[in-house]
Amino acid sequence: MTTVPDIYRILPEVILTLTGVLMMLTDATIPPHWARRNLGWIGAIGTTLALWSSLWQLSLPEGTAFFGTVETSAFTVFFHVLICGIVLVTLLLSLDTLPGRSHHQGEFYTLIVFGAVGMCLLTGAVELLVAFIALEISSIATYVLAGYRKETGKGPESALKYFLLGSFATAFLLYGIALIFGATGTTHIYEIARLAPLAVNHTLVIASLALMLVGILFKVSAAPFHVWTPDVYEGSSSPVAALLSTAPKAAAFALLLRVIYEAYPSLHSFWSPLLWIVAVVSMTVGNLAALRQRNVKRMLAYSSIAHAGYLLAAFAGASSMGIAAASFYTAAYAAMNVGIFAIVTLVSGYDDRAILLDDFRGLIHRAPLLGSLLIFFLISLTGIPFTGGFAGKFYSFSAAMGAGAIWLTIIGLLNSGIAAGYYLRLALVSAQKPDADSEQPRPQMGVAVSAAIALCFLATLVLGILPNVTLHAAQQGAQTLQAPIAAPPSNVTP
Q: Are 212 and 173 in contact (CB under 8 A)?
């Protein structure tokens, strides 16, 4: 028997928490007129340490801690590394784009790090009340970040909409947890899987799953729970929109995988067709709405709804292939979406001065490197071969085909064709010659934002050309998720 200290199981969360506390204390002690930019570097260093500690957890024996409420496995490590990577790139992006004159700059970086604590904890939670607490930690931080630009009217509006609708969605999740506790007498995921088929009131079990799905699908902005997405993305600063569109969704998808594959495997006949329908609606609504947008951020918001549908297509497969495909797609989407939001940030500025489609006209002539990268990320989002977007869609649709969901795959492919319309439209606009009377400034790229875009570019390229390493990691995580370990009420593991 090998005893592993409980603290090792949550080491990334501990490092992120200490980093956030250090940033708060430093912010409070330095003179008010001093720049707070270095606090972002502290956050970046702490996030990098958390990422490496997540990889170190692979050397630990798989097991649980704190009375079986949190778990360390290949699945949790995969999503911890993904979330920490997204947060690191977001911090780098913010360092060069957040104005020094902005109010409470230190709190901005601190909120990002504290939000990451909740997201990481959410991916490792195997007890529903712990998952709920982790979701609240993440949500509160992102609610505030959405309204950070309070000098504009859209900032507070987006934060208020996000908070109100998010609170309703969280209530659905909490009601679902209460119902499953009433039906089984436990909120532990592995115990629910064992006791749910034996429950006296089976209707209560189905109702609990339905309510929890409402709460989780809101967090991933899947239709018809997507109404908050365009307004929140538009009102938030572009670095925050990059974070909101990826990291919280990755954590929510991890929770969704745990809930349906580990807690409710016996209800596959119920949740599989339901997610099938949600995937089709999300793809169709997101793409058709994006076609009509002239505002680039709103277009990307509707695009994220469509990509939630592509990812949910992988859930049609009950095998480990479906879990691995969903995990891989989450990583691929995060890389290319953060990358394109980074370019939007440089072109439009912190205040979104140039956010319409025509404002990107001639970008490749004004800034050849930036314009070329924009086209590359758009190609990846479209799903052209040798990019992460193509590999993600290929594995997702392959999982759906393997489960016999042929019509779902056909609808997904048709939606990818629709998406090409608005992605390539932006690419063509950026490749056109600028107007003779155009006086748009050339975007300036600092060291930090250049590093952020380079990381996104390399990740998107590697996931498209050499996807096997990431796919293997996703498959290892899928195996641990499909064959859950026992959940002892101690830190003793075999």
A: yes
